[in-house]
Amino acid sequence: MRIVLVDDEHLPLTRLKTLLEKSKVPEIDIVGEYTDSLNVITQIKALQPDVAFLDIVMPDMDGLALGEKLQELLPNVEIVFTTGYDKYAIDAFNLHAIDYLLKPVQEMRLQKTLERLQRVIENNQQMATKKKMIQLLGGIKVITPEGKVQLMKWRTSKAKELFAYMLSNRNEMIYRDTILELFWPESDTDKASKQLYTAIYTIRQTLKNYGLEGVQISSPMLNSGYKLLVENVVIDVEQWLDQLKSLPSLQENTADKHERVFQAYTGDYLGDSDYLWSEGERERLRRLWLRHAQQLSEFYIRNKKYAAAVRVQERVQAFSPDEEESYFTLMKLYDLLNNAAAVEEQYWQLKKMLQEQLAVEPSVEIEGWYRNWRKISTISQVDVLN
Questions:
Q1: Where is mean pLDDT largest: 84-93, 100-109, 367-376?
Q2: From the centroid of its chain, how far is CA 96?
Q3: CATH ID of 274-385, from 3.40.109.10, 1.10.287.1490, 1.25.40.10, 3.40.50.720
Q4: Strand 2-6 to strand 29-34: parallel, antiparallel, or no bridges (unpaired)?
Q5: Rounded to 10 degrees, what is the CA torsion of 131, 135, 140, 146?
Q6: pTM confidence score
């Protein structure tokens, strides 16, 4: 449970933090503590808390106004108000706060609040699994609540690309002229406009065919632009990023969570297409995943779980075959596992990849390691024969 604390006074802030850390509820992670309510607004999306404990009486922006703003920025965040006065209770619950704690906060009363929060958060997670999902990692697919994967079929490739573009810019206004210039740059305005209307109609019909009623295309400015709105449908990229940001520190008892998030990356963003406009986001997401993969691999290596580290690096190599470091890491891991054939295979695969992609040889470090390994392997074989 990721928690943010906001109180303009240090003493109650420290007391609440201490009580939370002593709580019997597992995996509480206090990701932010603030005495300035305005600072929270600028950082809340990066923190991705499940819960915000807010003092009500504060300068600059009071807790009620702050709670409303946080719910606007993060609709799923749960709010708990803390105050020395009970006259704000009605206002607090009008904001759908989950609880209202009077100061000084009592340990038993806080425990009840945390248990209720735990139930609400678990229920929200279960509800999310019952929604349809649009998968963008690896290509556009629909995943039903039962887990059935459906490849979306499109009448035209242009309609598919326009949908992908609008989904990538979901909940934002996209001006008609921007779409025409990007998708039909060589057509005159009248012809391009007709093609746009046809593509929008095709997208709407395709969404209907796949039961994606929660995805709607509106034209709020009299056909001068479009906005794609998403409700009650999970977007896998959003879910994966939220899970990645919410991960606790990597330890023995949290490795399974890290492994699940690592495995949830099912391929590059819109990986079945080569849309130029998506390259920046594709590279950003891939780099985030590779960084996490490296952390997971290093953790397994430190803990001598070499087979697990091999599985991580093999997946990295499958998705990003041009990552030179992955081949080298696998060479060293296979050496630790006494798999000489696999070391050789990784080395020659690396040489082939570098020749085909860049017309270069492996780095001096890798070549030196490989020559030294060959020398030691040869000596070991001679010793065995003798």
A1: 367-376
A2: 27
A3: 1.25.40.10
A4: parallel
A5: -50
A6: 0.69
